[in-house]
Structures are given as C-alpha cells and as structure tokens.
Design goal:
Blueprint lengths: L15 H7 L6 E5 L5 E6 L5 E8 L13 H8 L11 H8 L3 E6 L4 E8 L3 H13 L5 H20 L2 H13 L13 H5 L3 H11 L5 E7 L3 H11 L23 E8 L4 E8 L8 H15 L5 H9 L3 E8 L7 E9 L5 H17 L4 H18 L3 H14 L9 H6 L3 H11 L5 E9 L18
Parallel strand pairs: 2-6, 7-11
Antiparallel strand pairs: 1-2, 3-5, 3-6, 4-5, 8-10, 8-11, 9-10
Length: 461
C-alpha cells in the first residue's frame, strides 16, 4: 500500500450539471472577533441537532526550527494531560460522558482540536478548550510517558515501514530550504532530546487567542455562539506572536534523485514537481488547472494512470497522482507507483513520464474533461454532507491565510478550466528542473527485533 498522499476521486458517471447545481446550497459563514483577537466563524447546518467545534492554531511543523522538530505534535498530545482545573484524562472523559467525540491533529501549517456533540452540549466544549488554551499544566511524569508514545508512533509509522521511510526521504530531498523539509512527527534525534521546556516555550509562543480561530458548524445560532464564546474564551489573555520569517524553497536547477535501500518486498517510486499552491500562485487559474490535471491522471478507475498503466500496459501494479490545492507554501504535484511483476522501476518511471508528456503535447478531449470536472467538484460537494468537513474546510483555509470565501468560488473556478489551460500548466510546471525522484530499492527482509509495548495517549496522528 503506497503512502496515501492523495484522495482518490470516486464519483465516476455523475452528471456535471447535477453536481454543480448541488453546490449552490452552500450556506454563508458568520464571522466575529473577540477583544482578545480570537476569530469565530460559524457555519449553520440545521439538518440534525449536532454541532462540531474546532479550534485551530496557526502553528505546525513548518513553524519549527532545527533541534525541536515534532514539538507541535508532541504538544498536541500533552494538551490532553491536564490543566490547573482538570486532571490528566479529564477532558476526554467529560466529552465522552456527554455523548461526544473528540480528538486532534497536527499538520504542516496548523494544529487543531475538535469535538462533535449534541448541540446543547456546546458550552462544555467551549469551557474545556478555553481552559486548556491558557491553563495547561505540563507535568514531567506525563511528558516522560508521552514522548515515548510519540517515538513509538514514529517507529511504527515510518521507521518500520519502508515505503513511509522512502517517502520521508523523498520529501526531505524535494524541500531543501522550505520548512516542509521536516516531517510532522519530527526527526527521531530531536524527539529523543526534547525537553519539557521546549513544549512550555512553544505553548507560550503560539497558544494564544489572537493566534487561533474557532470554527463552529451545525445546528446553532451564530449570535448565540458568539455570546457563548465571549463568556468562555473572552477571559483568555491575548499574547505576543512572533513574526514568522519567510522560508521559501531555493530555486531548483535540475532533477534531484535519491535511491533508498531498505528491507522491503516491493520497489516503489515517488516523483514530485515543485509547484505553487493556491496561496502562493500568481494566477489562481493555474492552481485550479493543476487540481483538474490531478483528476485527469488519477480520478477514479477511468482516469489515465489506472487505465493506461495498471490495466492497459500493465507496467504498474498501482499508480497514483495528487496535488494539494490548499497549502501555506509551495507544494508538490505528486506521482507514485509500484511496478508489476514483469516490469521494473525504470519501466514505470518511463511510463509515468510518457503520461505527463501526453498532457503537455495533446489537448484533453472535452468529454474526458467534463467527466473529471464532475468528479473533482463532486468530491468537494459531497464533503458538505458532513458537518465536520464543513468546519474543517473553513478552518484549514483561514489558518493558512486564505479567505474561506474561496470555497464559494471553487465550482466556477473548476468549470472555467479549459483543455488549453491544462496543457499550459503541464508544460509550465511539470518540468525536469522542478522534479525530484525517489526510489525504494528492496533489500532482503530481516525479522525485526521485538519491542515492549508502550502505553500512553491515543490522540493525534
């Protein structure tokens, strides 16, 4: 199984007109700001008596410097380990006793915490989140346990997984000066040398209301949400936020290539072209064209990579492509694949490059383009069925510095993509001078030494 850096589209056959019509029911977002700087965004959805509350902090792995990589993720774990008012584990227990679900996640550009509750229980979420926003207790004994949990998580997800380890090396090669160079979970050496003071300093620097956005979606009244937030979050003092220095990726001047030798059963290839995101692109039309291009290459079973490489030439056992439209910094247009038994990595790389050249040399036919547009738009529209994803889309965009109003533009932007524009962006961005290639060269498998189980928290990713 390849590292799932992209989400497959699965809405083949749906009519484009029906999808576009369905998207017109997107409700407006109400916005408020407290005196301490906390932004509040409310999205009403009255289909069920539930509410999702998410608090987003503008801090993630791309904010970290050498020596403390992984600190954002470790702090996310520690946020469940008690405050001045509550003992370790109380947060999760109280939410569960009120019939809710909760968790958190750390990304490159954000750290977010969420609860899903029956709508009358929203005050419980606000009270608990506001409490740990400024009254967290960082205890030595809890940190000693949780850092071991995170290190074991890294071992299981990366160091004991040859594909994940190759992907991590691939990303670190593709990004040399960008902070996306570092893995979200951190490098093992930094985790091994992390101290409680690192977490305390990070918490003080970034966990303040004027560096956070509260997103609430569900069966709520925006004005009531504002008053409730004012009651609980309004007492949290604002803080001094450091100015984040720009760390742009140095201009690439040729293909970067690595070969990773690890015990593994199958070879794998990762290919990535450095491309702008919607946040960094000079012309937004380019970003939306790249989004559609990703769908053309890997938008369900009828897309080009599965059709031509897996079922057609059978050079690949699996092949995928993906693009991250919403990213704070420049991102990668990604390809991955595993060759079939009768072919090797060189064959697969050659075939992937041939598929890329086809998009550069030949215009996409309108029928294929309409199908892909329907799939790309359907992926976004059907996410609106989830109260959670409505809030998540808003929170992610606002946290990376994009006005969430662009969500309302998405369908029109996708509709506007032409065959000529797709060919243009393929020629402009999918070039050797921005390409990084990583291959996993399987070595003989050796049995791994057994390790004792590590007990601890279950939050985060």
């Amino acid at each position: 199984m390849l590292k799932p850096f992209y989400k497959p589209f699965g809405m083949a056959g749906i009519a484009l007109g029906a999808v576009l019509a369905a998207s017109s029911s997107i409700a407006a977002v109400s916005e408020f700001t407290l005196d301490n700087g906390l932004r509040i965004l409310v999205k009403e959805d009255h289909r069920a008596p539930v509410v999702v509350s998410q608090i987003w902090y503008k801090v993630g792995s791309s904010y970290e410097h050498g020596g403390i990589t992984g600190v954002s993720h470790v702090l996310e774990h520690m946020m469940f380990k008690g405050t001045r008012q509550h003992a370790p584990g109380d947060f999760s227990r109280i939410i569960a006793e009120n019939g809710g679900r909760e968790n958190a996640f750390t990304g490159k550009d954000y750290t977010a915490y969420y609860q899903r509750l029956e709508k009358s229980r929203l005050p419980i979420s606000f009270e608990l989140e506001a409490d740990r926003m400024y009254q967290l207790r960082l205890l030595d004994e809890e940190f000693a346990k949780e850092i071991k949990v995170v290190m074991e998580e890294r071992r299981l997800r990366t160091e004991d997984n040859p594909q994940s380890q190759t992907y991590e090396n691939f990303v670190a090669t593709a990004f040399q000066t960008s902070p996306y160079h570092n893995p979200i979970i951190g490098w093992m050496n930094d985790l091994d040398n992390m101290e409680l003071k690192d977490l305390a300093d990070w918490y003080k620097a970034w966990y303040v209301p004027n560096n956070a956005t509260l997103v609430v979606s569900g069966d709520v009244d925006p004005k009531e949400v504002y008053q409730l937030a004012k009651k609980y979050y309004g007492k949290v003092p604002r803080g001094d936020i450091a100015t984040l220095k720009p760390q742009r990726e140095v201009k690439q001047r040729g293909i970067r290539r690595i070969n990773v030798k690890l015990p593994a059963k199958l070879p794998v290839i990762y290919m990535g072209y450095l491309v702008p995101s919607l946040k960094t692109v000079s012309d937004p039309a380019d970003a939306y064209a790249l989004e559609v291009l990703a769908g053309i290459l890997d938008g369900g079973n009828s897309a080009r990579l599965p059709k031509n490489l897996v079922r057609g030439s059978q050079v690949a056992a699996s092949a995928g492509a993906g693009y991250d439209l919403y990213s704070r910094l420049d991102t990668l247009f990604l390809f991955s694949g595993t060759p079939s038994q009768k072919h090797n990595i060189k064959d697969l790389e050659k075939s992937l490059l041939q598929q890329i050249r086809m998009t550069q040399d030949t215009l996409v036919k309108q029928q294929e383009l309409d199908r892909v547009k329907a799939q790309v738009v359907a992926e976004k529209v059907y996410e609106l069925d989830s109260v959670f994803y409505q809030a998540m889309q808003i929170g992610q965009l606002e946290t990376i510095g994009i006005d969430s109003a662009v969500l309302d533009e998405y369908v029109d932007r996708i509709k506007a993509v032409t065959p000529e524009k797709i060919r243009e962006v393929a020629r402009k961005y999918l070039i050797d001078d921005s390409l990084t290639v990583a291959t996993l060269d399987p070595q003989s498998m050796q049995p791994l030494p057994s390790r004792p189980a590590v007990s601890g928290g279950g939050h985060g990713r």
